[in-house]
Amino acid sequence: MTLSNYLSVFGNRRVAIVLLLGFASGLPLALTAASLQAWLTVSGVDITTIGWFTLVGLPYTFKFLWSPLLDRFEPTWLGRRRGWLVLTQLALAVAIFAMSLLDPVASAGWLAVFGVIVAFLSASQDVVFDAYRTELLQEDERGAGAAVTTLGYRLAMLTSGALALIIAEKFLGWNNTYKLMAALMGGMALVTLFGPRLALPEGPRSPAGQELKGFLAMLAGALLGYWLASRGLALLGVPTDSKGWALFYLVAEVTAGGVLALWLARQMGFPALLGPLDEFISRKGAWAILALIIFYKLGDAFAGSLTTAFLLRGMGFSQTAVGEVNKVFGLLATLVGAVLGGLWMVKLGLWRALMLFGALQAVSNLMYWWLSISGQHPYVFQIMVAAVGVENLCGGMGTAAFVALLMTLCNARYTATQFALLSALAAFGRVYVGPASGVLVDQLGWSTFFVYTVVAALPGLLLLWWLRPRIDALHSPSNQSPQALD
């Protein structure tokens, strides 16, 4: 491909709208994660409660459950995919605005509720955007589409992360900053209207009544399993007045709910979910692969779960300093790491890249340990810059290899649902380690905590070592995605 052809690919309408929708996809994430954590921290909320607030991201780990419905049912008034995109973006604007009306101390419960709603809507937008991008881009545009998606997503995280920190401290305060983000999110719905329209699918589809019946059965099973686990543990005398036992309750309730939900979905029939799920599970070593997806970035997730709180409260840096270094410089380091990782993978191959980058992202957590013991060191700011740079650089390299693994694992016939499933599992560590991180920091202190994050990375690396023959044998599916129409 000549340079002019390459530039024309990046400059066409389809790739341009993918860039803007990548921004829309990334904007809500920090508002329920790092920025929310900063808001809670400067408002005086205790560290254990802040750790529990990381659970507002739970919908990201379960988005595969309702992704089949988003695929099966379409608001046809805007064409395929665009109707759901507009609806989720407008709903996100309303929910973010609702968060802006609350006080983190006086209304922590309601703030958590609307945080969960934002995460649910954001996860739903991600599912639809992934499908829209796949069907919209032509074969020679997919590389450019992947690049601009990452660019848009990271710019959005910079906007709702670092920029929000600076605006909140210097100009508007957190409540008005969230109002500004809500307005920006609402504007993305207008951007979506300029996206190319996709033709609605032709041919027979699974019966709508069957899909709804299966979904409702799955939902009923989730609620029933959650309730049975809660009641069973209470009858067994398991205490509920401890933060540690509360985490045990949560894991047991979610596990029971998930198992019963899938069992009832299978009994009643939910083909839009069960088809992609059964295809993946039928593969040799599927369960070990799923475990690898959960554990590979677990140590990285532990270290990153309370980084903002550590820099603000543990080390006493200002919001502006944290925004400039942890968000802006950290973002640039992540992008550089992702590019370096992608280039290096060509020579290393998938398994060796996963192993090397996984080891680097684990060891790089010790940079935060070094920062935590620096105290009143005259160069403590420079140490923070080094810690943020090295950790994000290595984390970006690990992410590049990890995303390549997820893409390789998807069957082209079920890309949307299987990618939603795998990416949801990948978010498992980022969401669930928050409460444990808060408890560990409270009990052990920051320096010991960061040593534990390195230990937490070891199971994923050992599992990767054991799975080398299967990773080496993976091949990208040869099937082509459905052709997109303007």
Automatic annotation (TrEMBL):
Subcellular location: Membrane
PROSITE patterns cross-referenced by the UniProt entry: MFS
Chief location: membrane
UniProt KW keywords: Membrane, Transmembrane, Transmembrane helix, Transport
Record CDD domains: MFS_AmpG_like
Transmembrane segments: 42-62, 83-102, 108-132, 144-168, 180-200, 212-229, 244-265, 286-308, 328-346, 353-371, 383-407, 419-440, 446-467
SUPFAM superfamilies membership: MFS general substrate transporter
Membrane topology listed for this record: Multi-pass membrane protein
Pfam families assigned: MFS_1
Domain Major facilitator superfamily (MFS) profile, residue spans: 14-472
Gene3D superfamilies cross-referenced by the UniProt entry: MFS general substrate transporter like domains (1.20.1250.20)
Keyword match Membrane: yes
Superkingdom in the source lineage: Bacteria
Protein name, UniProt field: MFS transporter
Organism, scientific name: Chitinimonas viridis
Taxonomic path: Bacteria, Pseudomonadati, Pseudomonadota, Betaproteobacteria, Neisseriales
